[in-house]
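Subject: for your reference before the review

Hello V.,

The reviewers asked for a structural picture of the protein, and I figured it would be easier to keep everything in one thread rather than splitting it across files. Below is the amino acid sequence we used in the manuscript, unchanged from the supplementary table.
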Amino acid sequence: MKTALNALTLGVALLPTIVIMALVLSNARYKREPIKKIASVFGMSALSTIAAVILEMIGTVILAMIVMALSIDLDTKAGLTIEEFLQYMLVVGPAEEACKYFTFKWIIFHDRDFDNTYDGVIYGAASALGFATLENLMYVFVGNDRALETAAMRAVLSIPLHAITGIVMGYWFGIAKYRRYNNIQPDTHPEHKAFIFAVVIHGAYDFIVSLRAIYADSKPICVGAMLLLIGVMIFIYVLMGKTIHRAKVETHNIYNRYYYEQLGGAMQDMSGGKTSEKRRFFGMPFPFYRQQGFNPYNPYAGMNLAPVPAAPNAAYVFGTQQPYNPYYAPAVQQTAPTIPPVQPPQGYRGQYDAPQPVYQAAQQQPDRWGGDVQTVYGPPSALRGSPLPGFGNAGNDVVQPPKRYCGNCGAEQKPGVKYCRMCGNKLPSE
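And here is what came back from the structure prediction:
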């Protein structure tokens, strides 16, 4: 009987990890990530719990000295509340989230298999769930008389909390890598803001949970803490779904033209494994890689070669997973052409079956190596806030078709659709 109970408890403890990881992997649109790579991130993150325990012990000692210096009375509920808040916001949250952050940063960020913005969500989830799973097993099976109850509570509370922090950080790691490898705001670090968000949401969750223990004799505070915790968990579940969906819709190649023509991508690919957003040549910085005035969009200018007919390169179509051809030399393009709306093909069954539009901006992005400007393609999140026209700044904006909404249920509609995909209401003609 005890063996069956332990097996049930283990299954409940592992179930949320399996469900969340399956959800993340099932939303990958174009290719599967290597299982060994995901497992390595998962395993290393699980081992990082040891580092988290050490960091928390050191942080607790330092915090105790700060509390003593501030003369905070821990015998009162107010003083204990302040101490708990500082403990979770300045010690526990930063220590645990830093383990996930640096596991991702050191192991997978420059890995060649991290070649798509959505891959950040996959590896971010693996990093968070590796940490959360081992921590969960320790809470459930080490010195716990109510193991099954603890496993059930943590399955719906703690594991999703850890998962959302890793997924959000992974999403912005994907955006950050895309920006650096395509020379779009290469010196910005949006993943740092994601780390701060993870620390705040993690610390806030732990602090709300601790309020019930501090004010166990105050029913109004306990009820208020429970309602606040429910609100936080609803926010976490909604944010998880929206982040995965957004990353799926905006999925985009990372290793594009700039990587091959400016960063020596062919050489980096031959070496395998790690890559870099710095210019490389046989693994070493090569400052004389370019001549002054070199135009990456007409690299053979002045060589008296036969012109190459212009044709779209498949690597720049939004959302494709085809490798970029570094030997293809398109003609110089001076202005941003008008992009006709994409029409759904025959047999169109859903919003992801049709070809996705190219997010294009005019040649206004300066090359950080001092050369000519370049045309940049990318998902909206990567281009948001950049000096490119059409993405929040003045310039020759790319005109997007107006959005359509159903007058009955308010659902957004695709161009050319006659009936609402949600309620079936007939739509007015365009």
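For the response letter, the relevant points are probably these. The CA atoms of residues 297 and 332 lie 5 Å apart. Strands lie at 280-281, 284-285, 404-405, 412-413.

Happy to draft the paragraph if you're swamped.

O.
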